[in-house]
Automatic annotation (TrEMBL):
This is Exonuclease domain-containing protein. InterPro entries: REX1-like_exo, REXO1/3/4-like, Ribonucl_H, RNaseH-like_sf, RNaseH_sf. It comes from Neurospora tetraspora. Residues 508-518 have a biased composition (Pro residues). One of its GO terms (cellular component) is nucleus. Residues 99-122 have a biased composition (Low complexity). Residues 32-135, 251-272, 495-524, 682-704 are annotated as: Disordered. Gene3D superfamilies: Ribonuclease H-like superfamily/Ribonuclease H.
Length: 704
């Protein structure tokens, strides 16, 4: 058996230098034995003998003398096994030496090792550049050839295989007929001949249309596919040509939008969807009571409907003193100790050393119905498998988060929104907060408020934290050290406090606190001294009846220590398919509902990767606030269309419900819509809209 394995070493490997097998028995360029001259042959050893066995006998005096006299240089006295690679090159990389040069017959015998490499060969830079010149992964493979057979769907099929196959065949027959008639009518017209499809393209067109109908409208699949077949059966070649031209124009518009898009993500999403509610801005604000979300029963999910009591705050303060600064890291879950005001011995803020973690969440791979292999979860940040490493990012200190409202109140007490008669009644405000890690947990670092629905900036300031900063969390907060260094002290602008406007028209809104940034430059911010100052500035813009719009408002309100009764939270407006605490992210909702890409980083998603010098920017609170406002307008558009079908009318800015039908129970029929009436019913259910592939929506009621 050993002889057979030895003979494999003289046979070239079928995979050549791309072999990635560990300890491959075949011959490769890096372990190929050069031809030895007759004068350098060893006594008693055959040329086909295993080189490893000869090396084991190299300690004999006679063998050592022969090998050393044949080569005058001393470096050859080293054991040959020290240079022989134990395993092939790493996976996915080409070996450093791509070929073996022939050795002249007059040359002395050399060890059977990887050939000597020149400095240019040992330098990894040329190899890396060679790989870039041949981007194998970026080459788009041709579309797979398919037959006229229904594709496998994810989930339950809307009909039997026999029905789907018959419908697909009939659809394909109509496509073939229309294609032949158009080709015949084209004659010598070169432009018309370009619209003629090949047999494989006709199969792809049939499969795509049948799959789209089966995925988007499974409940009415039979009726839809029958109507499509009858429609194509009655279609003339002229109409077929017009449809093909419309499809080509649509594809060209998509490509044009992709080239103009600021990111690869936006290019994939296509052009953003336009929002047209059919209402004026004042009417949209009057519609907001329909969307109010009650938080009275959501205290267990982080919402604070009323400030903590003095007894709760006292117990929380006693717990903090008993803990002696010991916390659990919010990133790596390790225990460490915090020293507010710094430790006297060495001035340290925390213990535990540096923190290594994954900043991205675990991604659950999409389940493939055709595969029985369980796929591994990977981290969004580095694409590593769960459990492969402790982290891909390092920070100098550990950080923590405080969730308890009572403990938050020990630092800054909660306040209910005070009455403010100077605030116009027809105002709605979108706001968003960015936080950083300090010795007190997460603290406010940036506050942004914009007017709704026009998105005009009302307030955008930086806030100086109360505790010592551990980590600015710039990847998500978008606030960098230079922003704090270059920030100017906040200066009041009139008329901001008090607000004397009687309406929220753009011409009468308070001016922005910051001048607009020049192209290619970061916005120069203004900074206030504390959280309480920032909170007072926000209170100057709102009243208890002013709708506050945002995404995940419990985090922003708790950070600012505010209890506000009139909220529209897009987390509750577009609930997750699972109950709380599961929620849909703002970035995903914008892509899902409006085909808009937000929170795009130039180093990863930019079309050219040069925006802001390719530097990581982080989130923009102004962008997030406007995105939440756009989602609210989208929901108004969808819900108002449904209400009009149910019989609702708009009379002098008031939404009037339909009249009571005969046999209906007496109750609220004929009553006009009021904020008080809506607040009692909005907490029961919320509407989740599922977007289909052709742009239509299906609504279902989901319990909140």
């Amino acid at each position: 058996m050993d002889t057979v394995l030895q003979n494999l070493g003289s046979i070239p490997c079928p995979h050549g230098d791309r072999c990635t097998a560990s300890g491959c028995l075949f011959q490769h360029s890096w372990n190929k034995k050069p031809a030895a001259p007759a004068s350098a042959k060893h006594d008693g050893l055959d040329e086909d003998d295993n080189p490893r066995k000869r090396r084991k006998l190299s300690t004999e005096p006679t063998q050592s003398t022969v090998s050393t006299t044949a080569e005058p240089s001393k470096p050859n006295l080293e054991p040959v096994t020290a240079k022989k690679p134990v395993s092939p090159p790493p996976l996915g990389r080409k070996p450093t030496v791509l070929s073996v040069q022939s050795v002249p017959s007059a040359a002395p015998s050399t060890p059977a090792t990887k050939p000597a490499t020149t400095p240019s060969q040992t330098d990894p830079t040329p190899v890396k550049s060679a790989e870039k010149r041949v981007p194998i992964r970026k080459v788009q493979a041709p579309r797979k050839v398919e037959t006229l057979n229904p594709r496998m769907l994810k989930g339950v099929a809307p009909a039997t295989f026999e029905f789907r196959f018959k419908a697909l065949t009939m659809l394909h027959e109509q496509f073939v007929r229309l294609n032949k008639e158009m080709e015949k009518a084209a004659g010598k017209d070169a432009e018309s001949k370009k619209l003629v499809l090949t047999p494989q393209e006709l199969i792809w067109l049939s499969l795509d249309l049948e799959e789209k109908i089966a995925m988007d409208k499974p409940s009415i699949y039979n009726n839809v596919i029958k109507n499509r077949i009858m429609g194509y059966k009655k279609m003339t070649p002229k109409q077929w040509k017009a449809e093909r031209l419309a499809e080509i124009k649509k594809e060209e518009e998509r490509k044009a939008a992709a080239t103009q898009a600021g990111s690869k993500k936006q290019a994939l999403l296509g052009p953003p969807k336009e929002i047209n509610t059919g209402l004026t801005p004042q009417e949209e604000i009057a519609f907001l009571p329909h969307l109010l979300t009650s938080i009275t029963e959501l205290a267990q999910h982080g919402y604070v409907p009323k400030p903590p009591s003095e007894e709760e705050i006292k117990k929380a303060r006693e717990g903090v003193e008993a803990a002696m600064g010991w916390e659990t890291c919010d990133r790596c879950t390790k225990r460490f100790q915090v020293f507010p005001g710094r430790r006297e011995e060495d001035g340290a803020l925390t213990t535990g050393g540096p923190c290594t973690y994954h900043w991205g969440r675990l991604l659950y791979p999409e389940r493939d119905p055709t595969s029985t292999v369980q796929q591994e979860r990977t981290y969004r940040c580095c694409k590593q498998l769960a459990g492969d490493s402790t982290g891909c990012t390092s920070c100098s200190t550990h950080v923590f988060t405080v969730k308890s409202p009572a403990r938050l109140a020990t630092i800054v007490p909660f306040m209910e929104t005070p009455e403010n008669p100077s605030v116009p009644k027809d105002r709605a405000v979108c706001f968003d907060c960015e936080m950083c890690y300090t010795v007190n947990g997460l603290e406010l670092i940036r506050l942004t408020a914009v007017n709704w629905p026009d998105g005009k900036e009302l307030l955008d300031i930086l806030v100086r934290p109360m505790g010592e900063i551990l980590d600015l969390n710039s990847r998500f907060s978008g606030v960098w050290p230079e922003d704090l260094i270059n920030a100017e002290p906040w200066k009041p602008v009139a008329p901001l406090d008090p607000v004397t406007n009687t309406d929220s028209s753009p011409s009468k809104l308070p001016p922005s606190t910051n001048p607009p940034a020049k192209p290619g430059q970061r916005k120069k911010m203004q900074i206030v001294s504390s959280l309480t100052v920032a909170r007072d500035l926000l209170f100057s813009l709102i009243s208890p009846t002013t709708p506050l719009i945002g995404h995940g408002l419990e985090n922003d309100l708790n950070t600012m220590r505010i209890c506000h009764p009139t909220l529209i939270d897009t987390v509750l407006l577009f609930p997750h398919k699972k109950p709380l605490p599961y929620r849909n992210g703002l970035k995903m909702l914008m892509e899902w509902k409006l085909n808009k890409a937000i929170q795009v980083e130039p180093d990863a998603d930019s079309a050219d990767g040069t925006a802001q010098g390719g530097k990581l920017l982080g989130h923009d609170s102004a962008e997030d606030a406007r995105a939440a406002g756009d989602l609210v307008r989208y929901e108004i558009q969808r819900r108002w269309a449904r209400m009009k079908r149910e019989g609702w009318t708009l009379k002098k800015g008031v939404f009037v419900p339909p009249k009571e039908k005969k046999g209906a129970t007496a109750g609220s029929a004929g009553k006009k819509l009021t904020v008080e009436g809506i607040e009692g019913t909005m907490g029961a259910t919320a509407t989740e809209v599922r977007k289909t592939r052709d742009g239509t929506e299906e609504g279902e009621l989901v319990e909140v």
